[in-house]
């Protein structure tokens, strides 16, 4: 389908941007980058963007958002390019959406509707499908006024007992609410299953490392690079949606679980944040968060601010984030040689920063070593049963680990619940004489 992309820029937003125009501290998004991102979102669902435009708005109209002159100009463009879809990169009220569709005789969707459409196509697991369906229904709840043409009809009410009866829109809203409740119940069951998986992983003494970042920052490519997994990685917004977890070994032998999460985006619809909260809570469980940034994107500073804002909404504040978040400056292979060298030099002297190219592998070894160093002091929990011929290890365990509980079994063995560091865990493995374990495995 041919599509036209419109990016409204409100006067107050331009004034705010001008007030912030003081160099690198500016984190507001430029209209040009918004237009490019909106086009990228449209391309992610195979739309043919035939025209894109930035539209300054001094006085937003409650009925149509845009002025009459701009509406007529866009109507002419739709006729010229034979386009049947207009994407407005701005929230639209149901009334504005309906009025614009009448004016242009074309389908109109706003930013929220476009992101929901992408998520609907990308969801592949049952949980992802339920989350997207729930978000979409909550979005549509207030838009039945434009979705139906028979709302003036009424039904019910017979003779003197009935009265006017139930209007069609009331019936539609009731059915919609019933479906929302049904989906919420199904999603609760899936969430309980995810919580059981988390509890199961907690019994295994492996720290969790979560990848977060703006969509298309290269998280999945980095995930594939360091785990050898085959997660879909394309130069496309929201190429992957469902979270993936893999077990892998760090350079010094410690096993960790790496989690690849859904990409973030500016103005992420609140319906989606709520629906995907169970998935995003994987980040809250992580011992270390890798914030992947696309340094080849001129808008990466604003993208970083959007990611940190969403992490703050999830409950990861600045103070906690400074300790748990490691910034990964990705895609340095796309930079010009001089810019590349400057970024690598800056990253080498900065705290909590590693510069890498997930595609070429540059800097990945340094990243792995830094992950290993960060997690070396993290206490892990494990339960072991000492056979009779290993009971001599008891004094060493009491001196080097935290023993939470002990059970002396009838066969002479001893079962212990322990907390110990990576170094002590490796030493215990050596003293127990256990062989190496597989480097990675899938966690469903």
Automatic annotation (TrEMBL):
Its main location: cytoplasm. Mg(2+) binds at residues 220, 240. SUPFAM superfamilies: P-loop containing nucleoside triphosphate hydrolases. Residues 425-444 are annotated as: Disordered. GTP binds at residues 213-220, 238-242, 260-263, 330-333, 357-359. Residues 207-379 form the Hflx-type G domain. It is found in: Cytoplasm. Keywords: Coiled coil, Cytoplasm, GTP-binding, Magnesium, Metal-binding, Nucleotide-binding. One of its GO terms (cellular component) is cytoplasm. GO terms for molecular function: GTP binding; GTPase activity; metal ion binding; ribosome binding. Residues 166-200 form a coiled coil. Its cofactor is Mg(2+). HAMAP family: GTPase_HflX. Belongs to the TRAFAC class OBG-HflX-like GTPase superfamily. HflX GTPase family. GTPase that associates with the 50S ribosomal subunit and may have a role during protein synthesis or ribosome biogenesis. Monomer. Associates with the 50S ribosomal subunit. This is GTPase HflX. It comes from Rhizobium leucaenae.
């Amino acid at each position: 389908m041919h599509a036209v992309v419109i990016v409204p820029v409100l006067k107050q937003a331009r004034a705010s941007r001008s007030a912030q125009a003081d160099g690198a501290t500016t984190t507001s998004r430029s209209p040009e980058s918004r237009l490019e991102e909106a086009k990228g979102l449209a391309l992610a669902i195979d739309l043919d963007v035939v025209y894109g435009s930035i539209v300054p708005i001094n006085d937003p109209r409650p009925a149509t958002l845009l002025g009459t002159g701009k509406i007529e100009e866009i109507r002419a463009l739709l006729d010229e390019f034979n386009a049947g879809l207009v994407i407005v990169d701005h929230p639209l009220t149901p009334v504005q959406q309906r009025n614009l569709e009448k004016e242009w005789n074309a389908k109109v969707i706003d930013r929220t509707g476009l992101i929901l459409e992408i998520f609907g196509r990308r969801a592949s697991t049952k949980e992802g499908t339920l989350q997207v369906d729930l978000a979409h229904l909550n979005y549509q709840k207030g838009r039945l006024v434009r979705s139906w043409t028979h709302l003036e009809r009424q039904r019910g009410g017979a003779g003197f007992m009935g009265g006017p009866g139930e209007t069609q829109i009331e019936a539609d809203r009731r059915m919609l609410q019933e479906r929302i409740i049904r989906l919420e119940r199904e999603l609760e069951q899936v969430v309980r299953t995810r919580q059981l998986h988390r509890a199961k992983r907690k019994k295994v003494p492996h720290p969790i490392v979560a990848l977060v970042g703006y969509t298309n920052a290269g998280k999945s490519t980095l995930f594939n690079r360091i785990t050898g997994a085959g997660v879909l990685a394309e130069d496309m917004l929201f190429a992957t949606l469902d979270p993936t977890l893999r077990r892998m070994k760090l350079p010094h032998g410690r096993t960790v679980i790496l989690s690849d999460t859904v990409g973030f985006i500016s103005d992420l619809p609140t319906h989606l944040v709520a629906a995907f909260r169970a998935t995003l809570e994987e980040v809250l469980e992580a011992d270390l968060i890798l914030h992947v940034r696309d340094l080849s994107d001129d808008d990466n500073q604003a993208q970083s601010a959007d990611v940190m804002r969403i992490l703050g909404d999830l409950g990861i504040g600045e103070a906690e984030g400074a300790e748990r978040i490691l910034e990964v400056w990705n895609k340095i292979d796309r930079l010009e040689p001089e810019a590349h060298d400057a970024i690598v030099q800056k990253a080498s002297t900065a705290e909590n920063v590693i510069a890498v190219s997930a595609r070429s592998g540059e800097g990945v070894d340094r990243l792995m070593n830094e992950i290993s160093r960060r997690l070396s002091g993290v206490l892990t929990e494990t339960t072991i049963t000492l056979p009779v011929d290993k009971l001599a290890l008891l004094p060493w365990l009491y001196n080097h680990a935290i023993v939470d509980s002990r059970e002396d079994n009838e066969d002479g063995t001893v079962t212990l619940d322990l907390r110990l560091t990576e170094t002590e865990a490796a030493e215990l493995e050596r003293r127990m004489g256990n062989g190496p374990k597989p480097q990675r495995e899938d966690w469903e």
